[in-house]
TrEMBL record:
Organism expressing this protein natively: Nocardioides aquiterrae
One Pfam family, short name: Glycolytic
Listed NCBIfam families: FrucBisAld_I
Protein name: fructose-bisphosphate aldolase
Coiled coil: none
Record key words, sorted: Glycolysis, Lyase
Length: 331
């Protein structure tokens, strides 16, 4: 008798659940080549493909990262690179018990006729690109729409939401969980009510377009901003931020969405962890709530590393401390 071995693929809903449940969150290490290079240079580290690779390897191989992190978002460059032991990054992620994700948008450009409002690019050939990423092991993808309170227009909000919905539908067609990220930027001196109003409009527009596009919400992860005053305005307490954030989310995000994973947006680590902790203490959350931070997890590690192999262990310790703090905020 012959036995056929079959790999059972998790469903999109199961993957979304794995990413956002179980007291873990997602680490965003998907800065574009330009952004990563400028962050390296700001720390006095010469930027190049090799240093970007070394830095991402340092992050991924921090011992015990998978205790806190369920998913690791890679940039296209890193997705195709190998660790120093020769394993491709997506394969190493899986071996470490972490789902590999891929940022698939290609950045923003000015939307003609809309003042300074931005549109996120990357829909051309996206289906073929997603098929290739899926073939090479990607479990999830990320697309970020950028909403600047000072320049956003109704039309810009709408076309960004439509692009997110087209991206999400294409992800599902290719067996990939879309992380849907409409980011209302926190730079500026606006008050919390303004952020709440714009965040509500952005989220409502996104869920309207997802519905029109026929996207099954049980297989997506939402990645929103916390509802806060602008970074140049007087700060609000973590409790006020959490309450305002939950109110906006409850008004716009259907309960069928399995998980919400917040971006950090430039807020300090301690602040976003406090927002998350307060949010988790509030009742009535129909979704998993977790983190998908970039800078709040990795900035300390980058500074500690400074491009010197002798500092790798110290840098990994800083990363793990921040990841532990974020994961503790989920308990
Ligand atoms: P930050 O947490 O640094 O905002 O990055 C998260 C992210 O993935 C932005 O797209």
């Amino acid at each position: 008798m012959t036995t056929t071995l079959r790999t059972v693929q998790p469903t999109l809903a199961e993957t979304a659940q794995l990413m956002t449940g179980g007291g873990r969150g997602v680490l965003a290490a998907d800065e574009s080549i330009a952004t990563m290079s400028s962050r390296l240079e700001a720390e006095g580290i010469p930027a190049g493909a090799a240093t970007r690779r070394d830095y991402r390897e340092l992050l991924l191989t921090a011992d015990g990262l998978s205790d806190f992190v369920s998913g690791f978002i890679l940039a296209d460059e890193t997705f195709g690179q190998e660790l120093s032991d020769g394993r491709p990054f997506p394969e190493a992620c899986r071996e470490l018990g972490i789902l590999p994700g891929i940022k698939v948008d290609t950045g923003t450009s000015l939307l003609p006729g809309q003042g300074g409002a931005l549109i996120t690019e990357g829909l051309d050939r996206l289906g073929a690109r997603l098929a290739s990423y899926a073939e090479r092991g990607a479990a999830f993808a990320k697309w970020r729409a950028v909403i600047d309170i000072t320049t956003i227009t109704e039309y810009a909000m709408h076309v960004n939401a439509q692009a997110l919905a087209r991206y999400a539908a294409l992800c599902h067609q290719n067996g990939i969980v879309p992380v849907v990220e409409p980011e209302v930027l926190c730079g500026g001196d606006h008050d919390l009510a303004t952020c709440a109003r714009v965040s509500r409009l952005a989220l409502s527009s996104v869920f309207e377009e997802l519905a029109v596009a026929g996207v099954d919400l049980s297989g997506i992860v939402l990645k929103p901003n916390f509802v806060t005053p602008g970074l140049d305005a007087p700060a609000a307490s973590a409790h006020v931020v959490a309450t305002a954030t939950l109110e906006v989310l409850l008004g716009a995000v259907p309960a069928t969405v399995p998980g919400i994973a917040f971006l950090s947006g430039g807020h300090p680590t301690a602040d976003v962890c406090a927002f998350l902790s307060e949010l988790n203490a509030l009742p009535e959350r129909p979704w998993n709530v977790t983190f998908s931070f970039g800078r709040a997890l990795v900035s300390d590690a980058l500074r500690a590393w400074a491009g010197d192999p002798a500092n790798v262990t110290a840098a990994q310790r800083r990363l793990l401390d921040n990841c532990r703090e974020a994961a503790d905020a989920l308990r």
